[in-house]
Amino acid sequence: MRHLVFAAMISLFANVVTQAFERGRIVIYDGVTTQVSESPEAGKDLWVTMADLKRATGFVVKPQGVCREQLCFPLPKDRKAEFVSKKGKVSWFNLTAFARLIKQPVAADEKNAVWYFGPRPDVRDSYITSLDAPDFTLPDASGKMHSLSDFKGKRVLLVTWASW
Amino acid sequence: MIVSVAEDTGGLKDAAPWIAAAKPEYTALIDDKHLVTHLYNMVNVPTAVWINEQGRIVRPNEVAYVDNRYKAMHGIDAAPYLDAIRDWVANGERSAYVMSEQQLQERLKPQSPDRAMADAEFALGEYLYKKGSGPDAIPHFKEAQRLAPDNWNYKRQAWALSDAEKDYGTSFMKEVQKLGGKPYYEPRKLPNKP
């Protein structure tokens, strides 16, 4: 009987953990998938805690703006409330409003609670000025990874095809 | 050297049998996130880019058929392109087919906001599809197709992942017929043979 009660408690705990996981939201940023906490803010925008902001994007809110390494995007002073909000002891950041500010495309799926953030235009189109072929790393059929930059020193005919 | 990339959401499962059958002597990669499509602003396959020894683009995206097996359908003769590749192999930067910086910058266009948004929608659709939420992926694939109507990669890949007639009310052949003879690929702009 004691074993049954214990098993029921474990099962209940597992359900609670699963539900908490399911309530979380998924952010895909720079191709990396991160689960973030559900926010108390209503509406379609995605608010994340400052800790989740750093975990999911590498960005940190500083007095001079929203920064990652040497890159800083100042927040418009008269619109700060649009980006930062404090609920109790937790500060939240509106990641979708920030994406709009820096013209980053965002696709969202409310049902599955997934937000996909594409590259900023300056990153996406930088190769047009430099003419440097955008680098990528992909597997071959055996799973071995290859980067385009591995082939520097050789002329490369890059050809795409598909099975469809 | 040749680096081929399979733009296939199905990854190894869909691309590997073709690679095995081709027995390539070149590097054959598999791109299950359409990363190269996004990075190079591509809209169809086969598409090729010429990259020199310094890793710089010297000819941008262009249709790259290397034989005429589908010529009746798209009208593109492979021979001039093969000649151009051979000329580049023989002459490198001195090849008449290598484009100047100015020519390249005239040809390469920044992505439109709609195309950038289409990339994001398509990538989200792929994520949902791979997570087993195929029906939830369809609205995102449709949105990508609406935003980038000339992107055949986004059409054909999405149609291949489900029942195209049932889920999208169309098929590849129906869409080609709708073009009514309008080029299915952007015409190549090769200079005259030197």
How would you characterize the overall build of this protein?
The complex is a heterodimer of chains A (about 160) and B (about 190). The termini of chain A are far apart. In chain A, the strands form four sheets. Chain A has a four-stranded mixed sheet with strand order 2-1-10-9. In chain A, strands 3-8-7 form a three-stranded antiparallel sheet. Chain A has about 160 residues and is an alpha+beta fold. Chain A contains six helices and 13 strands. Chain A is globular and about 55 Å long. With about 190 residues, chain B is mostly helical. Helix content of chain B is about 50%, strand content about 10%. Chain B has ten helices and four strands. In chain B, the strands form two sheets. A two-stranded parallel ribbon of chain B has the order 1-2. In chain B, strands 3-4 form a two-stranded antiparallel ribbon. In chain B, helix 7 packs antiparallel against helix 8. The longest helix of chain B is centred in the middle third of the chain and has 18 residues. The two termini of chain B are about 25 Å apart.
